[in-house]
Every structure is written in structure tokens, then in C-alpha cells.
Amino acid sequence: MEVAWFDRGQEIQDRVAKTITSFIQSVGHEGVDVMFTFFVKNRYCENGEHF
């Protein structure tokens, strides 16, 4: 599973990874990898404007 987002700190990242892992395992998948990709604010545009 890949999560692409703005960095929210290690604590939140760990909680999200555990939540995703728990859910995917609950539907029958044993091995779960979660990878985080971080957006860089000045390189991310929404409606033509960067953050």
C-alpha cells in the first residue's frame, strides 16, 4: 500500500501504518507493506497554485 501525503510526523505515520495493516489483514491478507511518499509543499499544486 502506498500513501502519498504531506509529512504529518512519525507518530501519526506509525498510527496510519498500523491502521492500514490491521484493516488489510482483517480481510485476509497476511503480509502487508505500507510505504509513505511525501509531497513537497512548493512542488505540489492544487488548482494551479502551490502550497
Automatic annotation (TrEMBL):
UniProt xrefs under InterPro entries: DUF1904, Tautomerase/MIF_sf
Source organism superkingdom: Bacteria
Protein name in UniProt: Tautomerase enzyme
Gene source species: Desulforamulus putei DSM 12395
